[in-house]
Each structure stands twice: as C-alpha cells, then as structure tokens.
Write a structure and sequence with these properties.
homodimer; alpha+beta; Nucleoside Triphosphate Pyrophosphohydrolase; Arc Repressor Mutant, subunit A; 2 domains; 8-stranded mixed beta sheet; about 25% helix; elongated; Nudix hydrolase domain-containing protein (chains A, B)
C-alpha cells in the first residue's frame, strides 16, 4: 500500500432524512501504476478488513450524480470515466457483526432501528483514473484511504470482494468494445505502457506484433515525438489517445 | 397486440412495511413470435400509456429472487433466462402527474406522504422466454397484460421506453458472448428460425452462408430429424441448442 492520507475524524452521520433509504453507492476505483492494476480502499478504525469507498444518495441527486460526488470526495477528481456495472441486492449482504465492530471501533453506538443498520442495496460503479492525479481522502469512519494491488487484495468487508471481481469482469469485457483502457493512462504513453496495461487487465501476455497491429489499425492513436531517454536512437515513440474517426 | 388476459381488480396495496423502501424491479420480458421481437406490457386502467410489468422487493427476498417472483406472477414461468442489466436512478424519473392519473383511474387517492408516491430507484432485469409458453397476467392496477411488437412500441410511462432500449442494447451485446438467443426459441427450430431471430435482434440482415458456418462452428447445435412439411425433399433440418462442449 502507498499514497495513504490520514485526517482527523469528522461528524460521522446525518440523521438519514436527506438520503434515499436503504441505498448505497460503492465505487470500484481502478488505477494503473508500475505495471499493477490498483484499486482504492478504505481501512476502518478498529478493523483489519478494508472497504470500497462508498457513500449514499441524497434526495436531491440523481444516482449517477451521487456516484460522481462520492468519487470526487475520495479522489479529488471530477470528469473521469465512471460507469455503473451491477447492483448488489442479496438480503444478507451486510452482516450485523461487521457493522457493529465497525461502529464500536469508532466509539459509536446505534440502536438497531437506526437507518444505517437497515438492509442496504448497493449500486456498483467502476471508475478509471490516471493514478498520478488522484488524491485519496479517508471518509469520517475510516483512518486511511489508499491504493492496493488487485493481485494481492486484502480481506474486504461484506460483499465487497465480489464487487471488485464483478467490476474487473466488466472492465475486461469493455476494454475492446468501449476502448476505456486509455482512461487509466497518463495523456501520453509508449506502446509498451499500453500493452502492459492490456496484459495486466486481461491477466495474460499478448504477442507484441499482433497487439501493435491491432491497436494501430483502430485509428485511435496519435503518434507524437520520441520519449527522451539515455540512448536516443532506441527511444520509443509516445502516443496519445484520440477519439475514433467517424467513417 | 395479442394474447391479452383480463381479470378483476385485486387488493392494490400493502402498507409497504414489508418492502424495501424506494426500490422497484422493472423486467423487460422479451419474446419472439412470427419474425417479431416482442415485449410484455401492462396497460393501466384509465390511461393510454403502457408500462413494464414491475414490482417491489420484499424484505425477506434477495433482489434477484424478487425479480424472479415478479416474472412468475406475470408470465407463469419459472427458471427462465433472467439477468439484471441496469439500475435507473434519475431523481425525476417518475413524474407525479402520471402517478396521480394512474391512481385516479383506479379510484384510489393517496396522501403525498404515501410510500408509493416517494422517489423510486428501479433495477432493470431482462428476461428471455419461449413465447409459446408464457401466460400473461395483469397486475392489480392494470386491466391488461400482453405482447407488443418492439418495432411498434406504444407510449410507455415514466422512463420505461429508455429501459426497453437499454435492455435491447444489452441483449444485442450478449447475443454472441453469452449465446442467450436460444432462450427465445422453442426447444427445436430450423436454421431459418435462428437466423431470423438474430436478424430481428440485431436489426439487420445477415448473409445466410456466413451465418450458418459461424453458428455451426460453435458446436452448440445438435441436428435432429427433418421438419415435416408438404414437400419432404425440401424439408429443413431441425436443431436443438446444446451447451458448448468444454475443450
């Protein structure tokens, strides 16, 4: 884990009256750094388990707007790739024991009738962000918010592990269809960066020549100057993603 | 429109205490008949507009279980292809005027604080059923439940038209990936039936030889006897869908 911010505790709860009852948003926030696919996780005070950096929906917000706000609150980023992928509605998806431990760890006691302890359905969103631009921020109940390698995911609360893998499945499926992988890269990148990203998401090696031919045939990359390096004659070209030309 | 059932009015409302607040299920139920893709719609008493045959989630049910129950209540069918495709959460997705008209048409008056008049988020499911087996059943507020051609969709209430097209988009996208089209056909079918189904869903003609080669190469069809017809020498083969062989 790296890039962890820590802040003091804020007021943890509203009275829930301005929120949609029983509905939460759980964003799976993907980043890519040094050849690893990463996701942003919170760690709650007093617990070993981690959690997706979720939130609730205000009555005054569209659900999509709530997801964008939650993401902004966690990462400081707006206008990044964000899409719904699945809604999680199992009756027993939040176990009471975990909830109580979580609250006790924060010195909070709530009656069983409290809105926060009712059944919640959660809408999963996945976000793709340029790792170098995100600024992780903990929420009031958690003491850290940071990036974790997807390859060595720690234990997560509730059904959050299933959420992460469902989000990854969607990311894989949409990689070609929607060309969304570029949202995980900085504005300029080398062909090696791009291939490494695809290989990491798909979890398998790709043949270099085929990959390059396929990607270049899509007409979505603009070739820029060469990347500066020690041996200039071997420097790779930098590329930038451009929207596909309309035929 | 065809295959409309009509029944008397039942008790329209519970007090909502046994339901998840603010959450509904709206199934887009696809059938295929005589070369047309069809969906199942309700018509509410006193309204010209139609609606998806939705329902609510009991506290005792997983959301998926609620979707299966709603489907069973409308079609009499269990164990059919049913999958979540999107959750609709715009703040103003249900307009108050339509709601009041709907209730007044049934002679029902509700205070503005009634649970049914609060904001609802709706989870969209799509179902694929063998048209010949469904037995459409109206709900307590509606006076008919029947099949409509997708090509000539009547006006729908709220955001239900957007739901239908989002479901169709998902159906198109999953047609090859998940081989789900067969759920819309009877157990046995001709290659012409199958091609017609694909052409209807995709909204474009397919080249016959290519289509057959591609489908047969998947190893998912079992060829049965020839279909009986007048000119036996021209009778087409019948096929049956089998699960893909594991390599």
């Amino acid at each position: 884990m790296s890039m962890t911010n820590e802040t003091g505790m804020k007021r943890p709860f509203t009275d829930g009256q301005d929120l949609l009852p029983g509905l939460s948003i759980d964003p799976v926030i993907f980043g890519f750094h040094e050849g690893q696919l990463k996701i942003l996780l919170l760690r709650f005070r007093g617990m070993d388990a981690f959690a997706l950096p979720g939130g609730f929906v205000h009555l005054s917000e569209d659900v999509d707007e709530a997801a964008a706000r939650v993401l902004y609150e966690r990462t400081g980023l707006r206008e990044i790739y964000l899409d719904q992928f699945y809604t999680f509605g199992k009756r027993d998806r939040r176990d009471a024991g975990t909830q109580q431990t979580l609250l006790q760890g924060n010195g909070v006691e709530l009656p069983n009738t409290h809105w926060l302890l009712q059944r919640f359905v959660s809408i999963g969103y996945y976000a793709l962000i340029d790792f170098t631009k995100a600024n992780p921020t903990p929420d009031p109940l958690s003491d850290s918010c940071g990036w974790h390698d997807l390859a060595t995911l720690p234990p997560l609360i509730f059904d959050h592990t299933a959420m992460v893998y469902k989000a990854l499945e969607t990311l894989r499926k949409n990689l070609d269809d929607k060309l969304i992988g570029f949202a995980l890269l900085p504005e300029t990148f080398t062909m090696t960066d791009l291939q490494q990203l695809y290989e990491t998401i798909l979890g398998k090696p790709l043949q270099r020549t085929n990959f390059q031919r396929k990607i270049l045939s899509l007409g979505i990359l603009e070739r820029l100057e060469k990347k500066m390096s020690g041996g200039a004659h071997k420097a790779p070209y930098l590329y930038r993603f451009i929207s596909p030309a309309t035929p």
